[in-house]
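The freezer alarm interrupted the setup, so I double-checked each line after restarting. Inputs confirmed:
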Amino acid sequence: MDLGNPAFWLFVAVIAGIYGIMALGLYVQFSLAGLPNFGHVAFMAVAAYAMAILVVRYDAPLVLAGLAGLVAAVILALVMGLPALRLRADYLAIATVAGGEIVRYLAMNLPDLTGGPIGSIGMLGPGNIAMFNGGWQAFLDAIRAALGRLLGPVPTRDAVMAALVWASLVVLIALVHRLERSPWGRVERGIREDETAVIAAGKNVVAFKMQALVLGAILGGLAGILLALEIGVFSPDDYSPTLTFYAYLILILGGMNRAWAIPLGAVLFSLLYSGTRFLNFFPLSLFDSGSRAFLRLFLVGALLVAFMAFRPQGVLGNRQQLLLEK
Amino acid sequence: MAIVPIPVSGALVLQQLAQLVVNGLITGTILALTGVGVTLVFGIQRIANFAHGEYLTFAAYVGLLVNTGLSQNLVVATIVAVAATALLAVGLHFAVLRPLAGRGLVATSLITVGLGLMVRDVVFLVAGPRIRKLNIDQTAVFDLGFFRISPGQAVAIAITLVAAPAVAWFLARTTIGKSMRAVADNRDLAAVAGIDVERMGTYVWLLAGALAGVGGIMFAVVQGTFDPNLGFEVLFLIFTTVVLGGIGSAYGALAGGFILGLAMELSTWQGFFGGLEARFKPVLAFVTLIALLLYRPQGLFGKARVL
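Predicted 3D structure, all chains:
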């Protein structure tokens, strides 16, 4: 894999866009409504598994299966939110951690349904190769053909995917930005800043929190589905708990309270994350490529600590509106 | 979910029960000891320490270094590991967490997540991802008539018999133990009563680190083999223990650990509707946690006012 390979950078761009959508879900929950969600990855995993299972086992059309995946993420949000949203914020943090772990253990340990540690390819049991993204590949090819007629040269699947993902990210950010400035968004920000005042104003705080949690879950679920479609075969390891903290890091890198800074955060994070694999000069060349993966995670951790220490509002953030200090 | 029960005689079912009680008490001790550290850190420092699992990992690898690298016996290895982990916890407190205090729960949690990633990946880089084991004969079995224990479990039971009463005595009888509980309970009131809150902040990290060290070694010997994900895998069970006992309550964490350990092991007992499959034990723990949040969010020993 060398630095000049465009296919590699297209892949990085797709992943960056998907991570951006994932971080946008967290933005709605955490930056907007102040809900600390430490199990965001569970929404992604549930949606991806629901979609893949419906396609593989029941031959559902991809669109319906994808919608069902989003519904599954919403149900998970309701299940986690009902006990935890009435309590202090730390309880929600712990409940979301628990919810995420339950999803991960079930994905690992119900191999008949999920393929277990082998991943989605084993959903139909040993000896049968289960694929769920045929419909998606056909869809991408249709777009390629249409673009080819329009433009002349036929773009690659990766290029079409990157364009789709980034277009979705931009549209979704615009929508969230609008929502933020609506009366609904003002109530959510009010809850974040002073819950008691919002209760005194006669708002049903729990319902508003639940709405933010569900909206974030839908965005997370969408990111999970896109990730599954992009990588084709996925296993529980592709939805590891660290992903949630990547989402936090993307928010922090961009700007904790700026929805439109998320693409910057996603790009910076992806450059950092995929860039570390090119750190093969001395003295880092002393590590073999397997160890460099750990070095990369070490750097992610160090960056998280450094940003929290020196610039908690993020690169483009505004310190005045810093919710982290509450 | 239940496995098809193999027809077994009543005596065998009871024997399995005895075995599971022993296993549950061992798991329970690990969760109880580490849980006391996490809950007191939360009470005193207001930090949900996501790096705590890595303290266990660190202890296991220090133990490994002393035990197999320097070929010392397990007692020496345990003592060195416990001391080293206590120093690690206090070191991170002074180097990172104390200077960054007062940034709010989520910010501090994210900092500990970052620290945890750093510690875990340093262990990965130094020791490698290989599966390791401490120098114990894992194949031997001591048959005690009604149940059997492995040498690893024997070591764990020995540690339990020393550590669990010592911690309970420390919390109940010593001035420092009582002061710590007081600060965790009500910081301002404790400060007014003349307790040096800052100093307790340091002591609590020493205690939490040492207990995590004990837990890490126990976990390594009971499990037999381990890799650098050892602590991260048990972290959420420790959190469950803490919530079960009531966040901030030291006795709650002690009781919560044993309850959770026993419940997880006993759920696999065949006499109990054929028993749950072992791989679903953690799911049981997390479902318990969510049910608890629904009906008794303050935990078994917590106070409703903190909600």
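Quick read of the result. Residues 110 and 116 of chain A are 6 Å apart (CA to CA).
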